Amino acid sequence: MKLKRYIGLLTLITVLILPVYAHADGLPSFVELAKKCGPAVVNINTVKMVEVGNPMEDFFKFHGRDGNNPFEDFFKQFNNRGNNKQPKQKRKTGSLGSGFIISKDGFVVTNNHVVASADEITVKLQNDGHEYPAKIIGRDKETDLALLKIEVKKDLPFLEFANSDKAEVGEWVLAIGNPFGLGHTVTKGIISAKGRIIGAGPFDNFIQTDASINPGNSGGPLIDLKGRVIGINTAIIASGQGIGFAIPSNMAENVISQLKTDHKVSRGWLGVTIQDADAKTAKALGLKDEKGALVNSVNPGDPADKGGMKVGDVILKIDGEKIDDTNDLLRTVAALPPGKAVSVQVWRKGREKNLRIVLGERNGKNVVAEAEKMSPKAAEENLDDLGLVVRRVNRKAEADSLGLDRPEGLLVIEVMQGTPSEDAAIAVGDVIIEANQHKVNSIKDLQKIINTEGKKRGLVMLLLKRQGHNIFRTIELKDK
Predict the structure, then answer these.
(1) Does 22 carry a binding-site annotation?
(2) Is residue 367 part of a domain?
């Protein structure tokens, strides 16, 4: 009896353990997944009419050297006869991309860059091999997404979106598309990373994958093991291998839904310029973590201004959602509809404060601060603690040239080499408006802040006006 019980227990343990070993040691089969999802992935062909010059003229221009071309006058006498240029010839150029069907009545998702400049668009289905003319329902340049519609007299296979927020690094994924014109190519890989920012646009939040993605894959789906779209394949690093990027499905689904309903995308707008709150800035402001978005400026009359937001506030939460950095804030606000009243938690002068702001509509506003060197002639004073030479701004004409509403602050005349100010990227022509969120109108004001709060915290945070725009710079005070 004991032997039978032992054998039975061993058999039970083996049955329980075997599936785990099979899952850990063996790779999953993608055959059924490819069969299930493949028919909903389409090839997208576009045609664009482009103007071309006289091919013989282009040939001789190409072979002319150093601007000395004996055939140039020959062609000019015909092209400019009667002072009327001959119309340029037009020819068709084509390109290929990918997409996928999201509804049985023929709505198709792809990248904006696949169809943006096309004069003709056709969609080729896998299951019947036919091509159908496609109509653009809507496009969104900022996320590089587009929605098309084809008319087919039958129900079409389609794919559903997954929740990309729940996707984990290391999960298996499939990419299906039309790389180099090789229709319905299936490649496999894993999610390599999430939240990648590659400089493609203001709302970068890409999924990185090592599933092979190549030119022609653009607009095709990145599919999870349940056959749902986790991302839209969009970008690659040309010089790298196994590095591709996909738009997360949650972002895409929101955009596509708006394109389908309104043929455009409406995004929330606060009306501020921002920068990340780094470690030094967080310390200067008394923040526990280097999280949030530091407000550089508040546009007069915009939603943030009406809601009571101030320069120097650090935005910590929007409707209870934590804000880690500037990109996080941009994505969070843009995903909300204009007109929505949101609760905004900010850090202001050492404590949290809650604001209620009714969002406006984003319309492509963008504020970029650039350094501009100036050489004003006036009395100046040294700030040895910071490594700066500054002077007061006290003339209206000078204030106007510096982008100030009125004469105020201290103009930076010189930034000394090897000093904390040089390390903090202070530039000649900057105007110091505040120090540690206190107004500064004289050398005495600034020196007092440095000697009290600055020495206590080991740094000082300056609000600067640079070419009309606000920026913050935090300077670490070195012990003498």
Answers:
(1) no
(2) no
